[in-house]
Amino acid sequence: MTLRPLWIRFRRNRGALLGAAVVVVFSVLGLVAPWVAPYDPLTQNLAQGLQPPSFAHPLGTDEVGRDILSRVIVGSRISLAIAFASVGLALVVGGSLGLLAGFCGGRVDSVVSRLLDVWLALPGLLLAIVIIAILGVGIDNVIISIALGGVPPYARVARGSTLSVKESGFVEAARSLGAPDLAIILRHIVPNILAFLLVQATLGIATALLTASGLSFLGLGAQPPMPEWGAMLADGRPYLISNPQVSVFPGFTIMLVALGFNLFGDGLLETVTPRKAR
Amino acid sequence: MRHQMGLDRPLHVQYLRFVERAVAGDFGRSVRTTRPVRVEIAQGFSNTFQLATVSIVLATLVGLSLGCFAALRRYTIYDTLAMMTATLGVSAPVFWVGLMLIVLFSADLRLLPAAGNVGWASFILPAVALGLNSSGIIARMTRAGMVDTLSEDYVRTARSKGVTETAVVIRHALKNAMIPAITVLGLQYGYLLAGAAITETVFAWPGLGRLMVDSIGYRDYPVIQAGVLVVGVGFTLINLLADLGYAVVDPRIRYG
Questions:
Q1: CB of A135 less than 8 A from some CB of B
Q2: Rounded to whole angstroms, how far apart are CA atoms A124 and A146?
Q3: If you placed Cys at A231, which of A169, A216, B136, B156 could pair as Cys (CB 3.0 to 4.6 Å)?
Q4: Distance between CA B172 and CA B151 in Å, rounded?
Q5: Would you kindly state where each structural domain of chain A is located, as residue ranges?
Q6: Residue A227, preceding bond cis, omega within 30 degrees?
Q7: Cα-based distances in Å from A269 to A9, A137, B84
Q8: B191: closest CA of chain A, how far (Å)
Q9: Between the CA of residue B128 and those of A122, B27, B109, B181, B205, what are the distances in Å?
Q10: Quick check: A268 and A202 in contact, CB under 8 A?
Q11: What is the rounded average pLDDT of the residues B223-233?
């Protein structure tokens, strides 16, 4: 399969290109963060506390004199890692559940579908808060709790697309040649439903990022002095009026990255499922 | 102490006792305040319910208008701008927007109260912050539905009959576009009820979400248990109402 026609369709969507650019820039930034940050994100310098933006500190400094630009850069590694890890986990769990339900059908399908109905009855953020209440505060538990809250959409997408792929000619052909179920799933079904799952995951990363930073903002996720965007924002609350830079820049970054993933995901969605021709 | 709280009994006995009491509305007492959990939850729920209701009304008005605006000017620069705004609304972190609103309207302009529930003016900022994500989602749904219905034959028929443009848009296109939007509306209302924790923390709103976050901090398990139950039931009820709402908008759908 060649990707060229898809790329041509994707390229026409300017918003999606913008989103893709934001996603690429911040992903690269996250990878190389420790080497490009101008200062150490944890070193305190009380004499330089609460400085407005300047040449030395482009985004200013926080209440203990840490460089905000460096903290935002290193924070991209932490915040994106949380978002990617939780979406990846949700994708694997939800995708497998949906695949199982769609492929087996019958009783397995009804059990999984009812399970998902109950699962959906608790909204994501509440579920995340509850799981953290049980497991305790911390980044690992944030990843687990967001992943668990995010499972149902992937399961639904996987189940739906498995149901349609299962009926296609090539699956029937493989089956009539005597291919075992596992081979059919791995060689024929997974590659064909993966595109839909990955598009869903791109949109899911924006949500995961917002939920993760929200949990950290509430003090349930990343703990200070870790430079996580939501936690940084919460740190800046006491100085909101006098030194807004401490809260403004991390919050703006969260919005920018979430916007990037949303635009990118929308573009991908339009590319793989073209609606009526314009 | 263990015996008094029933913790020395087997797990399933403890659970059955919890269910037995919960059905009767007895969730025990808060470990933190020693007030009955029912009272704490009822108070928080009432505040959250008010806030979520104002928010969803606001979000629906904004979302529907923005979605219609974009759909009527589809594939123009106005459409692109409107949808960019909606995506921005979906992507904005509630807590950050809340803080920015406080800085702007409470600190700089001194127009609106920043914290607590003290009269109608204190609803404005939290309702805007809380409803922002939902208005973006509703706007996107409305636009998608409207773009589909506006190209339908019955809309063309209505136009050719000489029905005024306003009536075409509202009675023919919007009414049909609303059907998928109602599910989203119900879901969003549920999310607002449940997800108000962050907004409530920013604006010191004495609601259920903040009560639960505080209770987690104090390991006040009776309150957490009851809170989860109330939100879960509320969320399910709202979705049921949304499904029933279909039948009101669309007479083709009948239940029972």
A1: no
A2: 7
A3: A216
A4: 11
A5: 3-41+50-277
A6: no
A7: 11, 35, 16
A8: 6
A9: 24, 33, 17, 20, 14
A10: yes
A11: 85
Q: Specify the pTM.
A: 0.86
From chain B, pick out residues whose CB is under 8 angstroms from the CB of A126: 194-195, 197, 212, 228, 231-232
Residue of A nearest to B88 (CA): A259
Contact at CB, B99 and A129, closer than 8 angstroms: no
Task: Give the C-alpha separation, A263 to A15, whole Å.
Answer: 6
Cα–Cα distance between B19 and A219 in angstroms, integer? 31
Tokens of B245: 């709402």
Residues of B in contact with A239 (CB under 8 A): none
Average pLDDT, chain A: 85
* ipTM reported for the complex, 2 dp: 0.81
Please tell me which of the candidates B87, B102, B148 has its beta carbon nearest to residue A263: B87
- Helix, strand, or coil (residue A38): coil
From A207, A208, A246, A254, select the one nearest A230 (Cα to Cα): A254
* Structure tokens, B5: 């709280």
Query: For tokens 């300047």, what's the residue?
Result: A54
CATH architecture observed for domain A3-41+50-277: Orthogonal Bundle (1.10)
**CA atoms of B98 and B96, how far apart (whole Å):** 5
For the stretch A193-251, pLDDT in tens is 888 898 889 989 999 999 999 888 888 888 878 888 988 888 888 888 788 888 888 99
Q: Which residues of A195-211 are buried (b: 16+ CB within 10 A; e: fewer)?
A: ebbebbbbbbbbbbbbb
Nearest CA distance, A187 vs chain B (angstrom): 35
DSSP secondary structure letter of residue B19:
H
Strand runs labelled E in B208-254: none
Subunit contact A214:B94, Cβ cutoff 8 A: yes
Which one of B103, B198, B212 has the shortest CB-CB distance to A244?
B103
CA gap A38, A50 in Å, rounded: 17
B90 touches chain A (CB under 8 A): yes
CA torsion, ordered A112, A117, A119, A120, to nearest 10 deg: 140
Nearest CA among B54, B40, B56, B59 for reference residue B230? B40
Q: How many helices (H) and strands (E) does chain A have?
A: 11, 0
- In this complex, do A15 and B96 lie within 8 Å of one another by their Cβ atoms? no
Q: Which long-range contacts (CB under 8 A, 24 or more apart) does A3-7 make?
A: A6/A271, A6/A272
Helix B77-91 vs helix B37-72: crossing angle, to nearest 10: 160
In terms of average pLDDT, the best of A39-48, A165-174, B4-13 is: A165-174
Between CA A215 and CA A218 the distance in angstroms is 5
CATH C-level class of B29-255: mainly alpha
Candidates B41, B84, B198, B239: best to mutate against A (most CBs of A within 10 A) is: B198
Quick one: what percent of chain B has pLDDT higher than 90?
10
Q: Which residues of A touch B190 (CB under 8 A)?
A: 123
B77 shares contact with chain A (CB less than 8 Å): no
Q: Which residues pair with B29 in a beta bridge?
A: B36
